[in-house]
Amino acid sequence: MNRKQELYVADFETTTDEKDCRVWGWGLTALKKDYLKINNSIESFLNHISMLKNPVIYFHNLKFDSEFILYYLLSNNYEFVKNPKDLKHKSFNCLKTDTGVIYSLQYMQGANLITIYDSLKILPFSVAVMAKTFNLDIKKGDIDYNKIRHENHQITEHERDYIINDVEIVKDSLNFMFDNKLKGITLASMCLNEYKSIISKRNFERWFPLIDDDKFCRESYKGGFTYVNPKFQNVVINEGTVFDVNSLYPAVMRYDKLPYGKPIPFDGEPNKDEHTFHDLFIVKISCSFELKEGYIPSIQMKNNGLFNSTEYLTSSNNYDVELYLTSVDYELFFEHYEVYGLNYLGGYYFKSSTTLFCDYIDKWTEVKIKATIEGNQGMRTLSKLMLNSLYGKFGLNPKSGLKEPYLSENNIVKWTPYDGEERATIYVPLASFVTSYARKLTIESAQQNYDRFIYADTDSIHLVGRHEPDNIEIDSVKLGKWKHEYYFKRGRFIRAKTYIEEKDDGHNHIACAGLPVKLHEKVNFDNFVSGFEVYGKLRPKKVSGGVVLEESTFKIKS
What we know:
The chain is an alpha+beta fold. It has a domain at 7-179: Ribonuclease H-like superfamily/Ribonuclease H (Nucleotidyltransferase, domain 5, 2-Layer Sandwich). It has twelve helices and 23 strands. The strands form five sheets. It has an eight-stranded mixed β-sheet, with helices on both faces. Helix 8 (248-255) packs across helix 12, helix 9 (327-336) runs parallel beside helix 12 (428-447) and helix 10 runs antiparallel to helix 11.
């Protein structure tokens, strides 16, 4: 059924008392017209939006706000349906994956369809950062979140201004995206739709057909290379330098040979001479291996209880293991490891091309350069998002484990898993090869500077000393080349994504997975060590009525 839909942005302000968890304030604004409503309860919000004609409403971080809506719906006997096509009066559907990601919430009130999306899936920033990123005239305000606000609280002028700023910032940022004719409910889907519009739907279907053995190829799909050299782990490093790749993934998509078309299966060992026009492959092998002396490890083992899934392995510990490798990873594997008991278990050949993404990457690179020259921060940010968020969509997993909400005995929204319908894949070999090339560039660049190499994180390398690295091309602008970021006077690297560097200007660069940015001010070079603890990290706690954020202690584990 086609429905004319108006777009809105909403935001909830909620109490922090787990014994009195509720919405005390909300704001709603329309994207394309002069419209603003503010009130003080979940009931008034839901009553209001039920009078709008098939509204589409964006919340920023729907995972939080949806808890209050779901609690209300379940408490008022709305029925959950697994298929949105089955929606009827007083029924709802919530698309939540088995990993806890919420994409949408829909429910019917009479014949009216209310659709709720997460703007965080389009704009991956906090509201405060969003205002700076898009150089908006309005900035995120501040209020006392812990102030006691009773039911029927009369919203103060200061609170009203705070609520208005929050919804207006998201509204202006979403309008920026939509005004550039981008369509989709996530950033990745926007990128894919944009790419299809550039190359044509016909070319897309011809280049990236459905493949018969997605599961096999998917085993070769892995993430970025993040690694601390054990030689420099948990020690103070005096004098260092940091280099980043200019647009790593876009550079790979622009210049490297990428797979397309129907793959050709093969048995045994790959032999590229047999298929002149199919010069890329994904292969399955079994073997044991040991890292060569003086080499950086490049292999992780996922879904294998014998190994830590996040650790780069120096040895298979005499076990024969199975590996699925792109031809890029395959070459790197034999360069870095001694391999024993090798058995070839077949694979697939692919045709390759270096022109699949030229028009898309060139378009958005040109937008980025122009925006940089003109000082247009909004367009520069948009171009960076469009350049970096396309490849991952090709790795869409057809398995869709989902969750169904229900009210527990103590009146808390809980979730139970169920199997969703299998989705059509896109073309996972493309995502596999993009990430393979990216890892190769970072690992080989680190290897070229092995004696100085401290740390790498996807598109960056951190090196001892201030002199330029060997055998890597340095350019502050060119796509895929290394740009110098900064020097540091001293640094300490505890583990992946957990390190501190004292820069020349006296400021600390802190990377600490799980530590909120607002707590960085409590970190200094001396206390940032294994076992460091700091209080004040907000952690969501499900309670009757919704969810509250309670303060907890963050600790850097050994």
